[in-house]
Amino acid sequence: MTGRDGSGTDGTTTPTDGRATATADVDRSDPAYRAWLKEAVRKVQADANRSADTHLLLFPLPERWGIDLYLKDESTHPTGSLKHRLARSLFLYGLCNGWIRPGAPVIEASSGSTAVSEAYFAKLIGVPFIAVMPRTTSAEKCRLIEFHGGRCHFVDDSRKLYEESAELAARTGGHYMDQFTYAERATDWRGNNNIAESIYQQLRLERYPVPAWIVATAGTGGTSATIGRYVHYMQYDTRICVPDPENSCFFDGWTRHDAQACSERGSRIEGIGRPRMEPSFVPGAIDRMMKVPDAASVAAVRALERAIGRKAGGSTGTGLWSALKIVAEMVAEGRKGSVVTLLCDPGDRYLDKYYSDTWLAGQGLDIAPYTETLDRFLENGVWPD
C-alpha cells in the first residue's frame, strides 16, 4: 500500500520509476551510516584496483585471410564472468544513491552469473544477498552464489523474475538491484576503464587497432550499450553486432522497432536473451543483430575448445558464431581487419548442459550441421548458404 505522500505503510517510498526502496530505517546524516557508506564504497573500488585487466585472446584464422579475431576473456575476473564489471558498477551506483544500507538484503533477478558476482560484492561489504533465479539455472552457478554467502530463491516461470524480486525486496525491507533497468546507466560509458576502453587499449599495437566489428551478446543490454556509446563518443568506425538466441525478443524488437516485443519462453542460453525488451537494451547503440539457433551456439562453444583449448559458456558460443559469420562476409568481400567478441564466462559452469550430449538430446538440439558449417568455413573460408 502507498499513502498520499508516496510513502508506503511498510516504511517504503515509491520512486517515480515504480521501484520500491526501503528508506525509513536509515538516518543518512548519522555519522555511523556515513562511515559505513565510505568504507563500503572504498572496498568496492579497491576490488577494481586489485584486478588486472582481462586478456584479449587470438582465435586462430588462416593468415591468408588478413583478418584477426579476438575474444575478450571476461572469465578471468574474480567471480569468473563478464558480470563482475556490471556487479561492481551496480553496487557503486546503489551505494552512492543511498539505496544499499547496512544490514538490509540486496535482491537481484538473475539467471546466474550476475548473481554470483553480486553475491561476492554483497559479502565484501557485509550485506545479505538473495538471488531470484529460474529453477533451471545450472547447479554450479547456484553453488557459487552460496559459496559467496548468497541465497538462491527459485521461480518456475522466468517471466516472473522481476515481479518476485520486487515483492521480495518489499517484504524484507531490502533493495532490488534491478540490473535490467540500471545496467546501461550504472557504467561510465565514456571510459573509466570500461570494457570498451579496455578493448581499444589492448588493440593499439595490433595490425588492425580499430576493429571493424565488436560482437556483444545481450542479457541486460548494458554491455552493448556501453560499447556502442563509447564507439560513438570516440568517433571510431567500428560497428556493433548483437547476436540473439532462441526464445528471446531482442531481435524482433530491434528489427520491428517494437518496444513491446516479448517471448513466451525463456532462453536456453544462460545469461543472454530476455522475454521482454529490457530498459537497459539500447537499440540506437547497435548497428546489426543476428538470430542464432541454440544448437549453433553450442557447436561454436565446442569449436572454441578445439581451437584454443578453453571451455566457455553458451553465450560465448552465440557471440562466436556471429563473429565467425561476420569474418566469412569479410573474406567473401576481400576485406581485411579485426573482429572482437567476448568470452563471457567459463564452461565448467555448464558441464551438465552445453557439454553434455544427454542434455542436448533432451532439448532436441542437433549440433552436427552447425559443427560441419564451422569446420568447413575454417578450412576453406566459405560459409555455406
From TrEMBL:
<keyword id="KW-0963">Cytoplasm</keyword>
<dbReference type="Pfam" id="PF00291">
    <property type="entry name" value="PALP"/>
</dbReference>
<feature type="region of interest" description="Disordered">
    <location>
        <begin position="1"/>
        <end position="26"/>
    </location>
</feature>
<feature type="domain" description="Tryptophan synthase beta chain-like PALP">
    <location>
        <begin position="60"/>
        <end position="345"/>
    </location>
</feature>
<dbReference type="GO" id="GO:0016829">
    <property type="term" value="F:lyase activity"/>
</dbReference>
<dbReference type="GO" id="GO:0005737">
    <property type="term" value="C:cytoplasm"/>
</dbReference>
<dbReference type="GO" id="GO:0030170">
    <property type="term" value="F:pyridoxal phosphate binding"/>
</dbReference>
<protein>
    <recommendedName>
        <fullName>L-cysteine desulfhydrase Cds1</fullName>
        <ecNumber>4.4.1.1</ecNumber>
    </recommendedName>
</protein>
<dbReference type="InterPro" id="IPR036052">
    <property type="entry name" value="TrpB-like_PALP_sf"/>
</dbReference>
<dbReference type="InterPro" id="IPR047586">
    <property type="entry name" value="Cds1"/>
</dbReference>
<comment type="function">
    <text>A cysteine desulfhydrase that generates hydrogen sulfide, H(2)S. The H(2)S produced by this enzyme stimulates respiration in M.tuberculosis, mediated primarily via cytochrome bd with a lesser contribution from cytochrome bc1/aa3. H(2)S modulates the balance between respiration and glycolysis, and also contributes to redox homeostasis. Probably eliminates toxic levels of Cys (which can induce oxidative stress).</text>
</comment>
<feature type="compositionally biased region" description="Low complexity">
    <location>
        <begin position="10"/>
        <end position="24"/>
    </location>
</feature>
<comment type="similarity">
    <text>Belongs to the cysteine synthase/cystathionine beta-synthase family. Cds1 subfamily.</text>
</comment>
<keyword id="KW-0663">Pyridoxal phosphate</keyword>
<comment type="function">
    <text>A cysteine desulfhydrase that generates hydrogen sulfide, H(2)S. The H(2)S produced by this enzyme modulates the balance between respiration and glycolysis, and contributes to redox homeostasis. Probably eliminates toxic levels of Cys (which can induce oxidative stress).</text>
</comment>
<keyword id="KW-0456">Lyase</keyword>
<dbReference type="InterPro" id="IPR050214">
    <property type="entry name" value="Cys_Synth/Cystath_Beta-Synth"/>
</dbReference>
<dbReference type="GO" id="GO:0019450">
    <property type="term" value="P:L-cysteine catabolic process to pyruvate"/>
</dbReference>
<dbReference type="InterPro" id="IPR001926">
    <property type="entry name" value="TrpB-like_PALP"/>
</dbReference>
<feature type="modified residue" description="N6-(pyridoxal phosphate)lysine">
    <location>
        <position position="83"/>
    </location>
</feature>
